[in-house]
Amino acid sequence: MKNVTALALVLGFVALPAMAAQDAPFHHEAGLKYSANTEEFGDGLWDLDYRFYLDSVSQEKGPYALNGFLAQSTNVGASYSMQDDIDLDIFSVDGTYVFDSKWFVGAKIERYDAGNFDTDTYQLDLGYYFNDSSKVAAFYVDGSDIDSIYGLEVRSFIDLKSTTGIDLGAKWTHTDADDIFNVNADWYVTKEWSVGLGYDDNGSDDNFTAKTAYWLRMSDAFSATFELAKVLDSDVDGLFVGVGVVGRF
Q: Per-residue pLDDT tens for 8-32?
């Protein structure tokens, strides 16, 4: 019930009249998001996050949702996630330094608490922006009470003439249990609206996910975000829904 009440407050903010937005550049970004399956909508996950970009980030380049990625700027951030029904709390702090050569290094520290289990994890990243809208990176994760994990990822945004563009990504993760593969494609019909398809394979099961998202500009400072996804498998019920607010300044 607490989640539903809090979500109603978020939706109330979204319902405020929109003002003209001028796509002003920003250094700071903060967001609050609620996501859940429609079968158990009151037992969803809350995410609160903040990020500071050293260089000014343009909102005129590419889709609004990808402005941070396309900026290729040194940044630091912090986040907190919680889910009441499983007594879950996750705290994290991370940062990425981008060199003039477009090589970058990143680090992340995360504290995970779920019921009687808790652990700390540490992640290191090394990567390279090989053009204005693409990157490749390697990562390594270790910590208390977990086995080490490592992998590779590549991501590229492709501009299109008739629509905004396509965001493509692939990721390979090696664990002691299995290799995990993730592939993602999001077509941005406009700067605000995307439709996409994702595929994941964890070694024992694989799924396709159809999704769509919309970024509603309320003003230069505030936006509302909406996400809808469906796992294309008869064993998975319901839709995954995400609603959030984002502040940029």
A: 555 554 555 555 578 999 999 999 9
Cα–Cα distance, 217 to 154 (Å, whole number)? 29
Phi-psi region of 13 (alpha: psi -120 to 50; beta: other; left: phi over 0): alpha
The single residue listed with the structure tokens 């995307």 is 194
> H helices within 15-128, ranges in order?
67-71
Task: Fill in the DSSP letter of residue 68.
Answer: H
Half-sphere exposure of 239 (CA within 13 A, CB side): 9
CB 242 within 8 A of CB 14: no
DSSP state letters, 37-90: EGGGGGG-EEEEEEEEEEEEEPSSSS-GGGHHHHH---EEEEEEEEEGGGTEEE
Task: Name the residue type at position 91.
Answer: F
Q: What's the CA gap between 212 and 216, in Å, rounded?
A: 13
- Report the amino acid identity of residue 132: D
Q: What CA–CA distances, in Å, run from 221 to 31, 78, 246?
A: 12, 20, 8
Q: Tell me the HSE value of 46 on the side-chain side, using a 13 A CA sphere.
A: 19
CA-to-CA distance for 59 and 106, rounded, in angstroms? 23
5: which 2 tokens? 């009440």
Tokens at 63, concatenated: 């889709």
pTM for this structure?
Answer: 0.90
Task: Report the amino acid identity of residue 146.
Answer: I
Confidence of residue 239 (pLDDT cuts 50, 70, 90): very high
pLDDT tens for each residue of 86-140: 899 999 999 999 999 999 999 999 999 988 889 999 999 999 999 999 999 999 9
Looking at residue 17, what DSSP letter applies? P
SS3 state at 41: helix
Question: Is 248:59 a contact under the CB 8 Å cutoff?
Answer: yes
